Task: structure prediction
Amino acid sequence: MSDAGLEILLKSLRLSFMAEQWQELEQQAIVQGWSYSQYLRFLCEHEQTGRDDRRLQRYLKNSKLPAGKSLVNFDFAACPRLEQRRVVQLVSNTDWVKRGENILFFGPSGVGKTHLACGVALGLIEHGLPVRYFSATALVQQLQQAKANLLLEKQLVKLDRYAVLVIDDIGYVKRTESETSVLFELIAHRYERFSLMITSNHPFREWDCIFADTTMTVAAIDRLVHHATLIEVEAESYRKKAAQARLGVAIST
Ligand code: ADP
Ligand code: MG
Result:
C-alpha cells in the first residue's frame, strides 16, 4: 500500500493522530530499533494522548468557565475556616459526580464562592468530566425561553451531556412563578442522576424568595440536599480587600 493510501485508511478509521505521526515514529523506530509491537504501542499512545488533549480543549471551550479561576490560584489562607482538603478532595475523588451528588457553596458576597466552584469545575474537566458554567440568571432565561417554545424537556435532556452544571449566584434569580419553576424542573430532572454545583449568598431559610412558593422551595431544597456537600465560605470579602490594597485605604461597608 502507498503512503498516501495508508494515510487515507487511518483517517477513515478516525485515527487522525496516527495518520499525522506514523512516518515520524517510523523513522524513530528504525533508528532506535523498536520491535513491531513497540512501534504499534507508541502509535496507539500518540492517538490516545492526542484525543485526550483534544477532548480537554473541547470541554474547556464548552464549559464557558470564566478565565483564571482555579484552585491553584485560590488563596486558602484568606478563608481560614474553610478546609482546603475538603475542597481539593472534590477534584481528587470524583465519585460524588458518578453518584449525581451536589455541592452547595454558601457565604456572603465577595468571599470566593464563584472562584471555588469554578476551580473545582476546572479540576473536574482536567479529570475528563464535562462541566458547564451558568450564571443563575442566564440559565433561568435560557430555560424560560425553551419553555416558551415548548422545548424545555428537550433543553433539560441536552444539559444531561454535562456531568456537572455550575449554577452561580442562585439568589439573584428573579421570582416570578414561571422563572422559578424552570429552575425547579431542572433540579428535579437532574436529581440523583447528574450533579449541580450551586453558589448562593442566601442561606436556605431565605430561599423562599428564590422559588415561587414554600412548597416548591421545600421540594427543591429536599432534592438538592438529599445527596450533597454543603460548604460554608466565611471570610472577609476578597473583593473589598483587593480594593483596599489597591487604594491603600479602608473602605467601610
Ligand atoms: P463570591 O462569588 O463569593 O461573591 P468571588 O468568587 O466572585 O466571590 O470572588 C470575588 C473576587 O475575588 C474574584 O475575582 C475572585 O477570583 C477573588 N477571590 C475571592 N476569594 C479569593 C481567594 N481566597 N483567593 C484568590 N482570589 C479570591
Ligand atoms: Mg459569586
